[in-house]
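Hi Y.,

Following your request, here is the sequence exactly as I used it, all 90 residues.
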Amino acid sequence: MRTRHIATLVALSLAGGALCGCGTINEKLSGTVSDAIPVWAGGLSADAPPRPGTAKYDEYMKERERKRLLPAAERGEEAKPASPSQAVIQ
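Below is the corresponding structure, written out as C-alpha cells. Let me know if you'd prefer a different format.
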C-alpha cells in the first residue's frame, strides 16, 4: 500500500511540474506563435496594430498622436465613425 501512495505522489508531482513548465513556455512563446496563426484560424488580422516594443509600434503611435491632434475636418473619412442614420435598412 505504501508503494502505491509513493507512486501516486510521484505521478502527481511530475504532472504538476509539467503543467507549470507549460505555463512558462507559453508566456515566452505566445507572442511569436500567435503571429504565425492564420486569420481564418483566429490569428491577428492584417489591420491589427504592431506589438509594443518594436520600431513599427513607435511609428504607429506617433502617427496616431498626429491624427489625434488634427482638427476633425482634416482627419479624413477613415477616422469618422459611421452614424446610425447612414445605415441602410433592408
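The mean pLDDT is 77.

Thanks again,
Q.
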